[in-house]
Write a structure and sequence with these properties.
The chain is an alpha/beta fold. The protein is built from 13 helices and 13 strands. It is globular and about 50 Å long.
Amino acid sequence: MPHTSDARIRLRKTSGYDLTMSESKAFISGCKGLSLTDEEKAFFAGERPWGFILFGRNIGEAQQIADLVAEMRESIGNPHALVLIDQEGGRVQRIRPPLLPQYPNGAAIGEIYRRDREEGLRAAWLMSRLHAFDLTRFGITVDCLPVLDVPIEGSSEVIGNRAYGFDPHAVAEIGKAAAEGLKAGGMLPIMKHMPGHGRAFVDSHHKLPVVDVSLDLLERSDFVPFRAMKDELMAMSAHIVFTAVDAENPVTTSARAVDEVIRGRIGFDGLLMSDDVSMNALAGDIETRARGIFDAGLDLVLHCHGIMDEMLAVAKVAPVLAGDALRRTMAAEAGFRVADASDEQALREEFAGLFAVS
C-alpha cells in the first residue's frame, strides 16, 4: 500500500477530502497545465486515481516535466504510480523537439518491414528502446503504443499513417517488436485500440464510427494483431461500433464486445482501459459515459482533458479497485523489467542509419 506523504498530511488540513489511507480508484487522470494546482492536488489526494497521463499542454521544459510527474505521484502518496504518455512518433508525439528528437510514424516502420522484414522489426524495437531512454528520464513509465489497428483504403486519417500497414500479420509482428523495445528499456506498452479501429470512416474524437462487416472478416483481419499479443499486460479500447457484435453500443461501453470478443475470441485477460472518456464518439454526459464503461466490464476509465468538473464526474462513479480489475492492475504494476544494458549512443547511431531523426 502506498505510504502517506507529508504533502497528503498538508492537504488534509486545507481540503475537504478525507485523506485517510485508501486504495486506488479505477481511473487514470490528466491535469490542466505545467504543474498541479492546489485544487488538483486535493482532488488527486482525495480520489486517488490509479495513474496519470501527460499531454502536450503539460510539456514545457525538461525539469518541469520531471517535476510535474513527481508532483502527480506525491499527490497520491505513491512514488511508483504509473504515468502514461502517447509517444508514438509522427503526429502523435507529445514531447517534441527541441526536448526530444522527432521520430517517424508507424507507416515508416512498416515501409522498412516491407522492404526487409528483419530490418523493419529491428527498427520498431530500436525506436521503442529509444523512447524508453527518453521518457524514463522524466519518470514516465508507460507509453501508449503499439498501434495495432489495421486500416483499410479510404478509412479515417485518425489512424492513417500511425498504423504499421494493411497486413494484420505484419502489424502483429511489428507491434510485438515495438512492445519488446519498451519493456527492454524498463517501460510498459499499452496496445491500442482493441479490438481494432482501422475500419473507422469517421474520427471517434468527434463522431461514432460504425463498422458493418462480418465477424468472420474481423476475425481474419482486425482482431489478428491483438490475438497475437493477447498476453501483454495492458490495452486500450476502441470507441467504435461493430454491428456484427453489438449494433447498439461502441466497444468501450459494450459488455457483449468485452466479454465475447476481447476476453473471448481474442483471449486478452490483461488490464483493459477505455480510450479517452471525453471523446464524442461516446454518448451522454461524462458521468453517464464513465458508468457505461464500468458496466461494460472495463477495468479503468481514462480521462485526459484535465477539466475538473469532468474529473469529478469520473471519480464519482469510479469504484475502488477490487476483484479482477485489482488483479490486473497489480499484474501491470509488477510487470516492469529492469532496463537492459544497451548503449544508448550506439542504438541512436544504428537508428539513424535507418531513419533521419532531427
